[in-house]
Design goal:
2 copies of one chain form a homodimer. By secondary structure, chain A is an alpha+beta fold. Chain A contains 9 helices and 4 strands; from the N terminus they run βαβββαααααααα. The longest helix of chain A is centred in the middle third of the chain and has 28 residues, at about 90-120.
């Protein structure tokens, strides 16, 4: 069976990495069974065989693949008869970079402290130290006043919101990897924070509800908060 | 032959609408000949037959279609054997709304005065009046300090820039309507303003050069500024 190394919190079943969620959803999309192995930030040794230090790491027989984009491409190439992730749509790459450089940097400043609080004792030390160095502030300072930054976040989601006024998924009439990219970010938040990001009257909320129900409620049933 | 009503400046061959450029490029993409008719903001009567007051308006035999998105869909449906605009990629809609709600609002605040200066005397009055009402400022006030807003504009283009580091076009290995959407915005600027938007070391600059050369240099040979 395919194995996936996934970021986990102190609670082993709290799996919250946005990049891992892209792959969990993609595997389910393709109908592929997977054994998901918990991994913590400080367990670099455990995935050293992959030649790098981050999850997701996918092991499929003799193949080891890391980086969510490379894993998605691998799944498309290796399982061409399973439902397509629509990676051949060139615009998926634009959605990926929009999510990673526009949406996620705003989200991380909402979530850093909640991520920290969800981690094992050992990971907490590593996480606080590395993130505070990166941002040049304490986690508490970064997150402070997040409610006031909500209107800016909502405004940033405008292209996404308008898309859902016209069609059901980012990828069109059915979900594709572009949906899993954007959803991964929301699921990241949902798995470690009770901070509410979307209001029920937002078309993005309705889309997220659909995503939570996909593949027998894979994401909706995951350990997290009902926000 | 297909007819296209296109926004024109005081100079009849200065065609600068970003939405019309989407369609000019799309028609060339599909190898369809077109008779492009100049239209000015104040000539509402001239396109009244289309049931609305904006260009582009496309007339193809018995069919009249307005709105660039509807025209692109019409061309795909009516000419399925001609090269595809890849509108079936659901993510194109996200690119469209990103261009229209994120990129173009920044561009318009660079360009309003240059647009005004390119218009016929009659259009100038209409344009200044309607735009100053809309923005609650004079055109001169809106454009003022545009150089200082350039870093913010460049930052906003990050997802586009990163995409071109990985692939040749927004739509992947060959251009699609998503490219014509984004390019239309740059061509809008190029046709009416000598204000430089891109530096040669920017991957977006190189992509724009490719777009200017497409279809026998259709856009590159258009009346405009070499910036």
């Amino acid at each position: 069976m395919i194995k996936l190394y996934e970021l986990a919190g102190a609670e082993e079943n709290r799996r919250f990495s946005p990049y891992c969620w892209r792959i969990r959803m993609s595997l389910a999309h393709k109908g592929l069974a997977v054994d998901c192995l918990p991994w913590r930030f400080t367990e670099k040794e455990k995935i050293k065989f992959s030649g790098q230090e981050r999850v997701p790491v996918l092991v499929d027989g003799d193949h080891t693949v890391s980086d969510s984009w490379q894993i998605a491409k691998y799944l498309e190439a290796e399982y061409p008869d399973a439902p397509s992730l629509k990676l051949e749509n060139g615009e998926v790459l634009f959605v990926k970079f929009w999510a990673e450089t526009v949406m996620n940097p705003l989200l991380v400043k909402f979530l850093l402290l909640d991520i920290h609080d969800s981690l094992t004792a050992k990971d907490k030390i590593y996480f606080r130290d590395s993130r505070e160095k990166l941002f040049g502030k304490t986690l508490e300072e970064i997150v402070e006043g997040r409610e006031e930054r909500m209107p800016d976040f909502h405004k940033t989601l405008t292209p996404l919101r308008l898309t859902f006024k016209k069609q059901q998924f980012v990828a069109g009439g059915s979900p594709g990897f572009s949906d899993y990219i954007v959803f991964g970010a929301f699921q990241w938040a949902r798995c470690i924070s009770d901070f509410s990001l979307l209001q029920p009257d937002d078309p993005i909320y309705e889309w997220r509800q659909q995503m939570l129900r996909l593949h027998d409620g894979l994401a909706g049933n995951a350990v997290g908060y009902s926000v």
